[in-house]
């Protein structure tokens, strides 16, 4: 799921988020008919949250139409009330519109997303000249701008935008330092992706960036060990770190990183299997591959068998989505078992 400027319950329960956000839209649409213009801002926010909840359910077409309504309202508000907060709200809506366009996946939608997020950046940069409080919005918009350029194949511009977002997030003054560090870790992760994507990418720089994200996320976890969101992000950054370490030949370090990722994802899956089992199976599968390549065949067999059991259950629930990953683990286990027999 893409990052949103407006935090909603979508991150935790998509079905509940959808129901509540839909109720909010219905409420403010009714109030708007009774008191024209008075509830425009509230309706726009409700529409943005509803769009986010639709994305959480994979309903991208409906999400796109919903966020377009929000942008239309915000443009009208800015026309009648040219104030910084109104401009900022329009930027947030434009950001979410750009994200929805990126979710469409085709080149035309990506081009539209680039134009949309460029408009948001131009608007928010004017605000930041007089009020640094809006810098965090600029940082978020820059990451989406970077994503658009990477999708178009312009990785150099994607890297420049991501690096600027990191510089901004480092200097942002936020009441919640944990939120700032989480946003900075996200930016490092995106920069790592920018360096990783091209065929001739810079793996060393990609690794350095993702390890920066790991370091920040470890600090957040020390402050709040009960947060599943923090633990999930750390597990993801560790997994990415392991893949990059393996690419440059740091097999032992890669194994340690992915073993920690597995441990965190196992903990998460105990609490919510439906939310975390797919990621856990991926970490277990790749742990098996790394151990096999390092001639640790017994450990590789154990990890791959665990991955296979989880993927078998997932494929029973959704064969179209998980069938291929199940076959990959079956084939990998066959290779590992053959290696065990040769010992």
| Uncertain runs | 1-12
Percent range for β-strand residues:
under 5%
CATH class of the domain at 1-169: Mainly Alpha
Secondary-structure element pattern, one letter each: HHHHHHHHHHHHHH
Residue-averaged pLDDT, rounded? Answer: 90
CATH topology of the domain at 1-169: Serine Threonine Protein Phosphatase 5, Tetratricopeptide repeat
The end-to-end distance, rounded to whole angstroms, is 44 Å
Count helical runs: 14
How many runs of DSSP E, i.e. beta strands? Answer: 0
Radius of gyration: 22 Å
Overall geometry? globular
**Helix-residue proportion:** over 70%
Biggest sheet descriptor: none
CATH fourth-tier homologous superfamily of the domain at 1-169: Tetratricopeptide repeat domain
Q: How does CATH name the architecture of the domain at 1-169?
A: Alpha Horseshoe
Structural class by secondary-structure content: mainly alpha
Short recap of the structure:
The protein is mainly alpha-helical and 343 residues long. 83% of the residues lie in helices and 0% in strands. It has a domain at 1-169: Serine Threonine Protein Phosphatase 5, Tetratricopeptide repeat (Alpha Horseshoe).
Could you please describe the fold and organization of this structure?
The chain is mostly helical and 343 residues long. The chain has a domain at 1-169: Tetratricopeptide repeat domain (Serine Threonine Protein Phosphatase 5, Tetratricopeptide repeat), CATH 1.25.40. The protein has 14 helices and no strands. The longest helix is centred in the middle third of the chain and has 24 residues, at 107-130. The radius of gyration is 22 Å and the shape is globular.
């Amino acid at each position: 799921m893409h990052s949103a400027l407006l935090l909603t319950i979508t991150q935790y329960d998509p079905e509940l988020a959808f129901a509540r956000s839909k109720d909010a839209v219905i409420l403010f649409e009714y109030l708007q008919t009774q008191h024209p213009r008075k509830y425009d801002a509230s309706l726009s926010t409700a529409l943005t949250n509803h769009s986010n909840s639709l994305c959480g359910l994979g309903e991208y077409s409906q999400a796109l139409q919903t966020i377009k309504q929000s942008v239309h309202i915000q443009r009208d508000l800015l026309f009648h009330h040219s104030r910084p907060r109104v401009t900022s709200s329009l930027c947030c809506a434009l950001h979410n519109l750009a994200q929805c366009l990126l979710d469409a996946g085709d080149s035309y939608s990506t081009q539209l997303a680039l134009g949309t997020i460029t408009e948001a950046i131009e608007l928010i940069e004017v605000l930041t000249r007089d009020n640094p409080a809006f810098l965090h919005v600029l940082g978020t918009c820059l990451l989406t701008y970077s994503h658009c350029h990477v999708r178009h194949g312009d990785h150099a511009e994607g890297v420049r935008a991501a690096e600027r977002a990191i510089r901004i997030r480092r200097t942002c003054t936020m009441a919640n330092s944990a939120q700032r560090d989480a946003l900075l870790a996200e930016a490092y992760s995106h920069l790592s992706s920018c360096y990783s994507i091209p065929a001739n990418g810079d793996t060393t720089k990609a690794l350095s960036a993702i390890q920066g994200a790991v370091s920040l996320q470890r600090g957040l976890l020390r402050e709040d060990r009960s947060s599943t969101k923090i633990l999930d992000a750390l597990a993801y950054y560790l997994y990415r770190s392991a893949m990059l370490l393996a690419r440059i030949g740091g097999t032992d370090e890669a194994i340690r990183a992915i073993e920690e990722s597995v441990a965190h994802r196992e903990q998460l899956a105990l609490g919510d299997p439906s939310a975390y089992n797919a990621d856990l199976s991926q970490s277990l599968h790749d742990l098996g591959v790394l151990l096999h390549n390092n001639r640790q065949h017994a450990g590789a067999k154990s990890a791959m068998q665990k991955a296979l059991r989880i993927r078998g259950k997932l494929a029973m629930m959704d064969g179209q989505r998980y069938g291929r990953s199940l076959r990959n683990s079956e084939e990998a286990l066959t290779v590992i078992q053959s290696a065990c027999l040769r010992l």
